[in-house]
Amino acid sequence: MLRNKGEFNVDGHIGLKGNISANAAYAVSDHLGVIFSGAYVDQVKDKRDFTSDFFEVGAGYFTTFGEQKERVLEVYGGFGFGNSRRVYKDLTFDGPVVTEIQDAALNKVFAQVNFSKNKKNDLRLFGSKFPLSYGTAIRVNYISMKDFTINDINAPLENNVFIEPIFFTRMKVGKNLNLQYTSGSNFGLIKNENLKGGYTTLSLGIVYKM
To answer: Sign of torsion, CA 36 74 30 210?
Structure first.
């Protein structure tokens, strides 16, 4: 949520399901911003292991409006790439037995609209005031497989369009430091065997502004 030329935001989040992500945004001018992000997932379960890494970059327009410039609107577009691995297992008396391994290399293009607003009333805790802001982001991703193998054998490539609504609440706890809670989902528009929508995600993180 950029507001002024030269502003640089960095944030990091740890998801409740093993997701780790980091994001950065820089205001090149009064209305032009660039964004970068990376994410890593490493989940180990009884019947399925899942690992993934992704990187993306984008650029777009931002502006503030309202009587006190308390609202921010941003529109971004960009691209990304990454890899994922799924390991499916059967549980036996001798322990888990791997039945299938899926490896995929992925490309992404995306468009995203962000909106945020400062809350008029601050949160009062322990005799102190904590300013709040909240907002939403709506993202459309087109993701395509560049390579896809099942048990090291080439498999049909898939693509999909994902709609990702995201909601966040941010609380200012210092001059430049904020705590942030984020929730989001993604929905695939194409019915695929493998490349399809995921789970709802919840994350807690920090945002530092310079």
So the answer is: negative
Distance CA 51, CA 41 (A): 5
- CA 87 to the chain's CA centroid: 23
The pLDDT of residue 120 is: 64
Per-residue pLDDT tens for 190-205? 999 899 887 788 888 8
Could you give the CA distance from residue 117 to residue 129 in angstroms, rounded to a whole number? 17
Query: How far from chain centre, in Å, is Cα 155?
Result: 28
| pTM for the whole structure | 0.82
Taking alpha carbons only, the member of 13, 115, 11, 21 closest to residue 72 is: 115
CB 44 within 8 A of CB 17: no
Contact 164, 198 (CB under 8 A): no
* Amino acid making up residue 201: T
Residue type, 163: I
